[in-house]
Specification:
A hairpin with a 5-residue loop joins strand 1 and strand 2. The chain has a single domain, classed as Phosphoribosyl-AMP cyclohydrolase (Ubiquitin-like (UB roll), Roll). With 141 residues, the chain is mainly β.
């Protein structure tokens, strides 16, 4: 991934692409993680300025965990990292799509490849996903 595209080069440093963190609550920008080969939507998360810059510098998806109020490097505890292959930013610079190589078999902490494994059928959900791992074993809960 070349994050230097569309940035101004200087002698020893360069400017990272910026997002507009002022439009949303708590300075968070929604991020859709998408499989770069299949285009399957894997998950939705949020980034703040610190997580965004960390993702750009490392090349691995890092989000802001709203429940823990902390940086969350995807896959740090499970080993299911997301290597960023391409970044798409919307016209207002307040929404992001990360096209990722999902290292490990699943993006979902429930053990599914995608977090979007529930289909609405009338007044109920139908699980349309295939369980890939047991979360209790992976997260030792």
């Amino acid at each position: 991934m070349n994050i230097r595209n569309n940035t101004r080069e200087t002698k020893a440093t360069y400017m990272l692409p910026t997002l507009d963190f002022t439009k949303s609550v708590d300075g968070l920008v929604p991020v859709v993680a998408q499989d770069y080969q299949t285009n399957e939507i894997l998950m939705l998360a949020f980034t703040n300025e610190e997580a965004w810059n960390y993702s750009l510098k490392t090349g691995y998806a890092t989000y802001w965990s709203r429940s823990r109020s902390a940086l969350w490097k995807k896959g740090q505890s499970s080993g299911h990292l997301q290597k960023i292959k391409e970044i798409l930013v919307d016209c207002d610079k307040d929404s992001v799509i990360l096209k990722v190589d999902q290292l490990g078999s699943a993006a979902c902490h429930e053990g599914y490849k995608s977090c979007f494994y529930n289909r609405v059928d009338g007044e109920s959900y139908t699980n349309i996903g295939e369980s890939i791992f047991n979360p209790e074993e992976v997260y030792k809960k």
